[in-house]
Amino acid sequence: MNGALRRGTCDGRRASGPHRTGELDLATAPQLTEAAEALLSSGYAGIVVDLTPTVFLDSSGSRTLIAIARKAAAAGAELHVVAPRGNRPVRLPIDLLDLGAVVPIVNSVGEVPSPAVNRDAT
Questions:
Q1: What is the C-alpha to C-alpha distance for residues 89 and 11, in angstroms, rounded to an integer?
Q2: 3.30.750.24, 2.10.109.10, 3.40.640.10, 3.30.590.20: which CATH number matches 3-121?
Q3: Are 83 and 94 in contact (CB under 8 A)?
Q4: DSSP state, 2?
Q5: pLDDT number for residue 113
């Protein structure tokens, strides 16, 4: 099972962002990229990628997070990745690769400093 990508809800001003369930790997990383690019092209000033329900993260998934962070920065948007410390299969590669130096990693959605806001809706 590779899992699924669930898109968060949007109330016109806020988006909870994509939730990656199952695995974030070579087979599923393009889905995350597509979802993040859609949010960026819709004018969101921030994206929250929630990896809480993710059970596996490989190098392809890690590269995807870096690419999304770079695209968000180029678009003038913020990216935050939720990866709780208790989720060892996801946090281990994040910590070993020091992804936190490139991608803002938080332990819970509550730690995200600002909501994803659609620039066109403000």
A1: 32
A2: 3.30.750.24
A3: yes
A4: -
A5: 78
